[in-house]
Design brief:
Length: about 150
């Protein structure tokens, strides 16, 4: 990566709004996100938000979502770096399996060690999340990474 970036947890309303704006700009769901339920990470170049990622924790399971990098900065390993940070965060929280749904980035996640999984094999609490039960389309592929 040839740009200087820093990551920071999203905790206040203003950063949260910028986080959701970036997700809207890449057509990822964001209306169901909450500062209480989700661990949100923002990536900044200077003070400009350029990347996002989120985890929702369910005991030994986590749902990875909201991974996005601004169009102009893609292909410079930022998405990979955000994913690695989310995986580390999951490990710190004693997560054993990370699940996700994706329509466009299956091969990206495959390279990060995720494999396809049948939705019916996903734990009930993860299936009950807003992402699984509503906001993400039925055509999305479900993937899992065992830590
Ligand atoms: C998916 C996304 C976050 C990747 O970000 P990025 O910063 O471009 O990713 P990286 O530069 O770290 O890519 C790492 C590798 O994966 C590849 N890759 C990136 N996006 C990919 C995709 N959608 N499908 C397949 N491979 C992909 C890159 O070409 C790169 O390969 P290389 O190492 O051979 O050069 C970005 O494309 C994005 O924001 N997409 C729109 C939102 C989205 O679909 N998010 C995922 C749903 S949760």
């Amino acid at each position: 990566m040839d740009i200087e970036v820093r990551s920071a947890p999203i905790r206040d309303a203003e950063s949260f709004e910028a986080f959701r704006d970036l997700l809207r700009s890449v057509n990822l769901p964001c209306d169901d996100l909450s500062l209480d339920r989700h661990l949100l990470i923002g990536y900044y170049e200077d003070n400009r938000l350029i990347g996002t990622g989120a985890l929702e924790l369910f005991g030994p399971y986590a749902l990875l979502r909201s991974l996005a990098v601004k169009d102009a900065l893609r292909g410079r390993s930022l998405g990979s770096r955000i994913t690695d940070e989310l995986i580390d965060l999951a490990r710190e929280n004693k997560v054993e399996k990370i699940y996700l749904l994706t329509e466009t980035a299956r091969l990206f996640f495959k390279r990060k060690g995720f494999v396809d999984v049948d939705r019916k094999d996903v734990p009930a609490e993860v299936q009950a999340s807003s992402e699984f039960s509503g906001v993400c389309s039925d055509s999305a592929v479900c993937m899992v990474k065992t830590l």
